[in-house]
Amino acid sequence: MGPKGAAELLRRFGTLEGVLAAGRFGAQAEKLRLYRSIATMNASAPLPSIDIQMPTWDKASALARAWGLNQLGDRLIVLANSK
Question: Are 57 and 79 in contact (CB under 8 A)?
Answer without folding.
Answer: yes
